[in-house]
Automatic annotation (TrEMBL):
Family, as annotated: Belongs to the FPP/GGPP synthase family.
Protein name, as recorded: Polyprenyl synthetase
Keyword set, alphabetical order: Magnesium, Metal-binding, Transferase
Molecular function GO terms recorded: metal ion binding; prenyltransferase activity
Keyword field contains Transferase: yes
Listed SUPFAM superfamilies: Terpenoid synthases
Cofactor (UniProt): Mg(2+)
Domain of life, source organism: Bacteria
A single GO BP: isoprenoid biosynthetic process
Any single Pfam family the record assigns to this protein: polyprenyl_synt
Length: 312
């Protein structure tokens, strides 16, 4: 009997499929709204709803949400809770973007005006806080009977705390931070919310032993992700801050290593992707498949942009 049950579980995991992209996007956004608009209509003139709509409709890759959703399905978490975990991760990521734009006085986000530019700094501050609060509310909506809620809330708090410390470490560093410090700060501000996308489903499913490996894989992926972002933003960052490059990692390579800083950054990027892919292969129940797909997409993007630079 146990053998048949085990085979059934393995078959279910093997056949678990993510929703089609547009269906996933629609369901994700609808789930996010459940926590965001509670009580808003009773106290708001429409300004907050307009700001919420502006940000959410701005789209994005939803990579953290997709990682959480894939991982949850592979761990046999029911679809409604899989979507709630995905929405929780996307809500926290949204908060980080809004607060980051506020801190940087950024005017554009995803090719449209940022929340702070379109609706004002006070609204952006409040909206980012609302997204964080809604993420905790989303945790309260999880329906799994054996949910380890206290541990789950601690894990969410840990990810937020690490992200904040990483962001401050990057922004408050000296005018000429060491390369090692710059890399550690970049990873610290980027990795926790990627890692949360895998660790939350693992925790909910009782697979805690796999969390450290998931964390390491996401740290390598996050550093590669940040390196590619900094390679793309290098010229703009140097224009804003010729000395520090606005915290850009490529600028740190320039200060400490001979040769092409962009080549050094690209080499490290691919090394990190290789490590993330290898570690994803070791994760149980096929949950690393989503991360491996993200690795492949990031590698393809990096290769494409390298070719573009070569012929520019």
């Amino acid at each position: 009997m146990k053998t048949h049950q085990g085979e059934a579980v393995m078959t279910a995991r093997a056949t678990a499929r993510p929703l089609p992209l547009q269906k996933f996007e629609d369901d994700l956004v609808a789930t996010m709204w459940l926590g965001l608009d509670e009580g808003a209509e009773a106290i708001d003139s429409g300004h907050l709803i307009a700001a919420l709509t502006h940000h959410i409709n701005g789209g994005g890759s939803r990579i953290r949400a997709r990682l959480a959703h894939h991982c949850a399905l592979q761990l046999m978490i029911e679809e409604p809770d899989a979507l709630r975990l995905a929405a929780l991760c996307e809500l926290l990521h949204s908060a980080s973007l809004i607060h980051d734009d506020l801190s940087d006085h950024a005017q554009i986000r995803r090719e449209v005006p940022s929340v702070n530019h379109a609706f004002g700094e006070d609204t952006a501050l409040c909206l980012g806080d609302l997204f964080i609060s809604a993420a905790y509310a989303m945790a309260a909506r999880l329906e799994r009977a054996d949910l380890p809620l206290a541990a789950l809330l601690q894990l969410i708090h840990r990810a937020i705390t690490l992200t904040i410390h990483g962001q401050l470490s990057a922004s408050l560093s000296s005018s000429k931070p060491k390369l090692e410090h710059s890399i550690a700060a970049a990873c610290a501000k980027t990795a926790p919310l990627f890692s949360l996308a895998l660790e939350l489903p693992l925790l909910v499913a009782g697979e805690r032993k796999a969390q450290p490996l998931a964390r390491r894989a996401c740290e390598h992926f996050a550093l590669a992700y940040q390196l590619l972002d900094d390679l793309d933003d290098y010229d703009d960052d140097m224009a804003l801050d010729p000395e520090r490059g606005n915290g850009n990692l490529v600028r740190s390579f320039e200060r400490e290593l001979p040769g092409s800083a962009k080549e050094h950054a690209t080499t490290l990027l691919h090394q990190c992707l290789g490590q993330a892919s290898a570690e994803a292969d070791l994760l149980p129940h096929g949950i690393g498949g989503g991360l491996k797909s993200a690795v492949q997409q990031l590698a393809a993007t990096a290769l494409h942009r390298t070719h573009q630079s070569a012929y520019a």
